[in-house]
Write a structure and sequence with these properties.
binds nicotinamide-adenine-dinucleotide; 11 helices; 3-stranded mixed sheet; Rossmann fold; alpha/beta; 7-stranded parallel sheet; binds thymidine-5'-diphospho-beta-D-xylose; 12 strands
Length: 337
């Protein structure tokens, strides 16, 4: 299948992970054609894919996943869908949950129905998140999320993502739609919108501004390089079993305070640049992913997430690409300083 011609519709391909995935797939599968279907919300940025915009294998369609007619038109001739499009920032979901329910739940349903109606989609990869499992306690480092862990989402973001996952799986059971679901941990790398903690902290420090650390800073995230994630999604697209869920993690747990200290060290700033701020509401304590299933069944492994080298490379990317992030920092956001 890797060498054959395919036409893939990627939703949300102008965002952080989607744009990295488009570029990655065009490199790894040169005979494939890509349709990038994206509404260009605040998080969607054509500049993320400026280098491939004129490639004849790439087509951009400005469309919303809640628009059935536009979707049916864009899906014509496509054999697969990789569904990244979502409202993705937890703090925004706490400020206003409605766009999250609208895009992540209703939009996913409209997209699933469009695929069902078309009847030509051979594979639908739904991109989920580890946050649907809720949180793990700090004092049980032996515990990790497996695909069998019950869903217990705590934020409006993760609740809307859990609803999207379950809808996608229900379309497999009920209608035989060829769905596979992935659930990944926190990504880092180039082109991440500077509201998420790593690009926010790095760009603040480049500008001599302090970094707002929530609560006691002891919350733990499992960090995975975005290209490791892209490699996992490609493996699931090509070889994942229909109706299954695959967890994807970096085996790279870091507390926020430790992450902040590493960033400060790598940029050459002191701890005085930390600004402790009020905690996030409903702030999940710890995420940790057990990736045994995707490792043993699909042979995937994270190879680019070694800490702190991979973090240092990412920091260098933001240092070298100020013209990419400066316009984004000007925009209003609940967390962008
Ligand atoms: P992002 O916010 O950077 O990008 C989202 C993209 O979706 C944007 O291009 C936006 O324009 C588009 N979009 C939003 N609403 C749309 C709509 N109604 N119709 C069409 N397009 C729309 O997000 P990201 O960080 O790249 O995350 C991509 C996916 O991966 C999401 O589903 C997210 O839940 C999931 N995920 C993200 C992470 C992470 O660490 N960033 C981890 C695990 C899973
Ligand atoms: O200013 C901040 N200060 C801070 O201490 C911000 C923005 C975050 N944090 C903390 C909160 C989290 O514990 O850093 C941690 C990471 O925060 P985010 O970058 O907002 O990511 P998170 O909430 O963990 O969610 C991310 O990973 C899972 C993505 O945004 C989701 O889309 C994905 O599903």
């Amino acid at each position: 299948m890797a060498g054959s011609e395919r036409r893939i519709l990627i939703t949300g391909g102008a965002g952080f992970i989607g744009s990295n995935f488009v570029r990655f797939v065009m490199h790894e599968r040169p005979r494939w054609r890509i349709v990038n279907y994206d509404a260009l919300t605040y998080a969607g940025n054509p500049a993320n894919l400026a280098d491939v915009a004129d490639d004849p294998r790439y087509e951009f369609v400005h469309g919303d996943i809640r628009d059935r007619d536009d979707l049916v038109h864009a899906l014509s001739g496509c054999d697969s869908v990789v569904h990244f499009a979502a409202e993705s920032h937890v703090d925004r979901s706490i400020a206003d949950a409605s766009p999250f329910v609208s895009t992540n739940v209703l939009g996913t349903q409209v997209l699933l129905d469009a695929c069902r109606e078309l009847g030509t989609i051979e594979r639908f990869v739904h991109i989920g998140t580890d946050e649907v499992y809720g949180e793990l306690p700090l004092d049980r480092p032996d515990l990790k999320f497996t695909e069998q862990t019950p869903l217990k989402p705590n934020s409006p973001y993760s609740a809307s993502k859990a609803a999207g996952d379950l809808l996608a799986l229900s379309y497999h059971t009920t209608f035989g739609l060829p769905v596979v679901v992935t659930r990944c941990s926190n990504n880092f790398g180039p082109y991440q919108y500077p509201e998420k903690v790593i690009p926010l902290f790095v760009t603040n420090l480049i500008d001599g501004q302090k970094v707002p650390l929530y609560g006691d800073g002891l919350n733990v995230r499992d960090w995975l390089h975005v290209i490791d994630h892209c490699e996992a999604v490609l493996a699931v697209l090509e070889r994942g079993e229909l109706g299954e869920v695959y967890n994807i993690g970096g085996n790279n747990e870091q507390s926020n305070i430790k992450l902040t200290h590493t960033i400060l060290d790598l940029i050459g700033c002191g701890k005085d640049m930390i600004q402790p701020v009020e905690d996030r509401l409903g702030h999940d304590r710890r995420y940790a992913i057990d990736s045994t299933k995707i490792q043993s069944e699909l042979g995937w492994r994270a190879t680019r997430s070694t800490w702190p080298e991979a973090l240092a490379q990412t920091i260098d990317w933001y240092k070298s690409n100020e013209s990419w992030w400066r316009p984004l920092k000007q925009r209003t956001s609940p967390t962008v300083a």
